Amino acid sequence: MSDLDLLTQSLARNVKHWRAVRGFTLDVLAARAGVSRGMLIQIEQARTNPSIGTVVKIGDALGISITTLLDYEQGPKVRIVPAERAVRLWHTDAGSYSRLLAGTEAPGPLELWDWRLMPGESSLSEPHPGGTVEMVHVTAGELTLTVDGEDHTVPAGASASFEANAPHTYGNRGEEPVLMMMAVSVPPVGRDAT
Questions:
Q1: Strands of 122-125's sheet, edge to edge?
Q2: Residue that wins the pLDDT comparison between 1 and 169
Q3: Using CA atoms, how far apart are residues 17 and 11, in angstroms rounded to an integer?
Q4: In sequence order, what DSSP letters do the residues of 53-74 get, joined into one string?
Q5: Is the pLDDT of residue 126 over 80?
Q6: 113 with 101: CB under 8 angstroms?
């Protein structure tokens, strides 16, 4: 079975599992996530490999991390994720990418990402649920962080944090690749959420 097949199967199993844990019908989850009911059915039957944007929307709607959606087997208190198990979820032909390094529920989803943005490239993110916070630490290059239409320059060695309930873009307007680490904290969602 290929890595993609394993991811598709894990996603199918975990969307069904967490939808049941949250007590959401297909219609409720579809409405919360802004994803069609038909798409959710295809995901739960492992008949499609959805875009990262769709996976993020479903995770946000369920109040769980992408890590949890892709790997529902919870191990011991200490969980080591080998380098080769980091999941590349976004990439471009020019060489930009984001890799999900690790994640946990603490008490809401908490994720750690490794990003590379090549010169002239950017990645747009839709608003996340209220209370979501993102932190970045730039290790090389100069990041242009755009939050709700306002640009912020984050040079190598600097860090930034922001509430991510507004549209935001990670961009590289410089001449060299931007390397950065990003942490995302999403507030937990209760069973009675609608």
A1: 122-125, 168-171, 142-147, 150-155
A2: 169
A3: 10
A4: HHHHHHHHHHT--HHHHH----
A5: yes
A6: yes
Measured between alpha carbons, how far is 65 from 109 in angstroms, rounded to an integer?
Answer: 5
Instruction: List pLDDT tens digits, range 61-70.
Output: 998 888 888 8
d(CA 9, CA 49): 10
Structure tokens at 34: 């802004």
Q: What is the DSSP string of 76-96?
A: -SS----GGG-EEEEE-TTS-
CA 75/CA 82 separation, integer angstroms: 14
Q: Position of tokens 């996340």?
A: 128
Residues in the chain: 194
Strand segments (E) across the chain:
87-91, 97-105, 109-117, 122-125, 133-140, 142-147, 150-155, 159-163, 168-171, 178-185
pLDDT band with cut points at 50, 70 and 90 for residue 191: very low
List pLDDT tens digits, range 151-183: 999 999 888 888 888 899 999 999 999 999 999
